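Deliverable D2.4 — example input (structure tokens):
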């Protein structure tokens, strides 16, 4: 498998941001009351991911380290504004359904995480495929949750009636906030089962909430990391004291 195809595989399967890494939970739980909402949010996030990775990778040697995060946010915010204008023009009903969660793509941890951990360190083409893979993985996760919630909560998928209301009674809790947590929980259980099978075959999937930025100061898994980061920090501190 070449490097570009590997980035697609990692984003969709091995490091799926919703079902494996558990990232972007705010839009995942909030907008997936229907499969169409999940598709719209996923594709809009994918577009921002791809173009932000492209731009950040292209200018990675020009952007100073001291202002890289503000620069990334400006780039992402500009792309989100363009996407929002396009959605307002061509899909106004979907824009109304997604509401404030479209502008909040700016602070989506998936986008900033990929910018910092991958696009800022790799060439343009692999960074584009990384954005496509992560975006499609995010989209797949949202659609799966949206399909289950819509099917159980309204008997529909993408607005098409699947279960006849003559015999099916919609379980309305699934189109409400608690339903998102329930569906996500069952999907994560399924992915944990798949992870166990993959590990048994010697092909482990990524661990939940894996480090994206390499900055251990705010990471809940810092204790399990190797001592290299701690040693490096100590060396830097000693140099400053000298």
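Example output (designed residues):
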């Amino acid at each position: 498998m070449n490097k570009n195809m590997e980035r697609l595989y990692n984003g969709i399967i091995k490091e799926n941001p919703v079902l494996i890494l558990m990232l972007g939970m705010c839009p995942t739980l909030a907008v997936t009351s229907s499969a169409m909402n999940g598709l719209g949010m996923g594709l809009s996030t994918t577009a921002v991911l791809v173009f932000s990775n492209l731009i950040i990778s292209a200018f990675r040697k020009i952007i100073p380290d001291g202002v890289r995060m503000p620069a990334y946010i400006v780039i992402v915010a500009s792309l989100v504004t363009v996407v929002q204008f396009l959605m307002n023009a061509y899909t106004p009903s979907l824009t109304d359904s997604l509401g404030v969660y479209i502008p909040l793509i700016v602070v989506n941890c998936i986008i900033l995480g990929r910018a910092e951990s991958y696009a800022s360190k790799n060439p343009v083409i692999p960074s584009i495929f990384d954005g496509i893979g992560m975006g499609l993985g995010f989209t797949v996760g949202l659609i799966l949750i949206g399909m289950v919630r819509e099917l159980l909560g309204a008997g529909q998928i993408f607005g098409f009636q699947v279960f006849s209301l003559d015999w099916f009674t919609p379980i309305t809790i699934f189109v409400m906030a608690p339903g998102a947590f329930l569906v996500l929980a069952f999907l994560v259980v399924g992915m944990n089962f798949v992870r166990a099978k993959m590990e048994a075959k010697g092909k482990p999937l990524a661990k939940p909430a894996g480090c994206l930025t390499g900055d251990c100061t705010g990471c809940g898994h810092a204790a399990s990391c190797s001592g290299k980061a701690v040693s490096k920090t100590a060396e830097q501190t000693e140099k400053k004291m000298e």
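Strands lie at 156-157, 160-161.
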